[in-house]
Amino acid sequence: MVKTLWLFLFPAICFAQSSPYVPSIENGKKLYEDNCTVCHGVQGDGKTAMATMLKKPPVSFLDPKIEESFTPQHAFDAMTEGRKDVGMQSFKNLSKKERWDIAAYVFTFRDQTLKVEDPRPELSWDESKLMSDSQIIELFRKRGLPEDKVIEQLTLIRSYPQ
User: Fold this and answer.
1) Any long-range contacts for 55-59 (C-beta under 8 Å, 24+ apart)?
2) Could you tell me the mean pLDDT of each successive run of 10 residues in the chain, 162 residues long?
3) According to CATH, what is the number of the domain 21-159?
4) Rounded to two decimals, what is the model's pTM?
5) DSSP assignment string, the chain
């Protein structure tokens, strides 16, 4: 009986943890500028006066090394809980939606050159928020997306979440 009940409850629990909210890049930019630039910089490179005073510098969102594992979910979690190991405070004072807006916005620093009028990314926000850039690139390569379209699609996903 307990096992049967669990089988019915598990999908509901998973669904409840999934957020139907699609972040606003525009709002994320404003919130980032108000709350994050002092450490991470306007361009997201972590080169600020405050960064020089910290024992461990803040992450640069432009660093190719973070592409392997950094996801919007990681950004959201860091803002929610803070990072005591590097001196980052929690931003629980911001609403969940505001933290998701910032988490999505920090992924727009990579490629500012692609501008499209009607973006239609290949993955939804809910599908991509748990994936690193490298994981998304690998997925598109496995799907056979032409190499010149892989980065274009990654940029669309991160810049125009849907």
Assistant:
1) 55/86, 55/87, 56/85, 56/86, 56/87, 58/86, 58/88
2) 38 46 93 95 92 88 88 95 90 97 91 54 82 90 86 82 78
3) 1.10.760.10
4) 0.71
5) -HHHHHHHHHHHHHHHHS--PPP-HHHHHHHHHHHTHHHH-TTSS--SHHHHHSSSPPPPTT-GGGGGT--HHHHHHHHHH-BTTTTBPP-TTS-HHHHHHHHHHGGGSS------SS---SS-HHHHTT--HHHHHHHHHHTT--HHHHHHHHHHHHHS--
The domain segmentation of the chain, as residue ranges, is: 21-159
Query: What is the Cα–Cα distance from 37 to 31, expressed in whole angstroms?
Result: 10
In DSSP terms, which residues pair with 88 in a beta bridge?
83
Asked if 9 and 18 count as a contact pair (C-beta separation under 8 A), the reply is no
